[in-house]
Amino acid sequence: MQWTLVIPLKPLTRAKSRLSDTAHDGVRPGLALAFAQDTVAAALGCPAVADVAVVTNDALAGRELAALGARIVPDAPGAGLNAALAHGAAAVRASRPESPVAALNADLPALRPLELARVLNAAAEFPRAFLADAARVGTTLLGAGPEHELLPRFGRDSRARHRASGAVELRLDGVGSVRQDVDTGADLRAALALGVGPHTAAVSAGLLIPGS
Ligand SMILES: Nc1nc2c(ncn2[C@@H]2O[C@H](COP(=O)(O)OP(=O)(O)OP(=O)(O)O)[C@@H](O)[C@H]2O)c(=O)[nH]1
Ligand SMILES: C=C(OP(=O)(O)O)C(=O)O
Questions:
Q1: Contact (Cβ atoms closer than 8 angstroms) between residue 127 and residue 142
Q2: In which pathway does it act (predicted)?
Q3: 80 labeled binding residue
């Protein structure tokens, strides 16, 4: 089964605010873009992925991610993350009604295509399924099979909220690159230890990372 991924990305100047102690205002938008570029490139390299739609109103990110092969869907609702994801899922279902759809965070710079394939193949066994993030509090991926609504509940404590919504939690080992989202300097160090993609490697090379 091949999936369509929906990846949300807010305007780069507002993105990754929790990284402000690690990357100053002049660097952070470029870092957020690099995370998204490495996430999208790995997703497009995944054998279980048919296509990738990025929901964003950021013009630069839209151009750069389209150049990698993503479809850009404007964040027409402008009403936050879950509204953006529901809108993106509806847009991709309009052109690919039979496709399973998965929401994936844009901040997975260590993402490995074959680990993503393992997660998507596991998710294909259930109507709705999700993967908890590395901290086991949030969510990095939520998938819905054909004829099932995505019903995204991302944000604070989303692991508990996705579980409460009836989605099945995927209990997989060896998929750390799909779980490792980057919100803080400590997360960035963990992602660098896993091995990040080339865009993030280039931008983070110049950063002084506290604690490293
Ligand atoms: N299109 C869209 N994407 C969003 C929106 N809010 C958040 N996102 C994206 O959803 C993912 C998780 O978002 P957040 O954790 O809220 O924001 P963040 O930029 O990752 O980090 P912080 O600013 O530190 O909270 C990231 O890929 C964001 O870019 C939104 O309103 N619209
Ligand atoms: C939005 C989420 O991720 P983040 O850790 O980036 O806030 C989430 O876990 O639901």
A1: no
A2: Cofactor biosynthesis; coenzyme F420 biosynthesis
A3: no
153 CA distance to ligand 1 middle (Å): 13
Residue closest via CA to ligand 2's atom 9 equals: 138
From the list 61, 64, 102, the residue with the least C-alpha distance to 85 is 102
User: Which two three-digit tokens encode residue 150?
Assistant: 């995505």
Q: Work out whether strand 139-144 and strand 128-132 pair parallel, antiparallel, or are unpaired.
A: antiparallel
Closest to 106 in 3D by CA, of 181, 177, 21: 181
Report which residue type is found at 23. A
- Which domains are seen in the chain, by residue range? 3-199 (3.90.550.10)
The residue assigned the tokens 């066994």 is 125
With beta carbons less than 8 A apart as the criterion, state whether 103 and 178 touch.
no
Note the pLDDT tens digit of each residue in 52-70.
999 999 999 999 999 999 9
Distance CA 15, CA 12 (A): 5
The pLDDT tens digits for 12-33 are 999 999 998 888 888 999 999 9
Cα dihedral sign, 64-65-67-68: positive
Q: Model's pTM, two decimal places?
A: 0.97
Pocket (CB within 6 angstroms of ligand 1): 8-10, 15-18, 55-56, 75, 80-81, 84, 105-107, 183
> What amino acid is encoded at 63 in this protein?
R
Instruction: Find the helix or strand (DSSP H, E) in which 199 lies.
Output: helix 198-204
C-alpha Rg value of the chain to the nearest Å: 16
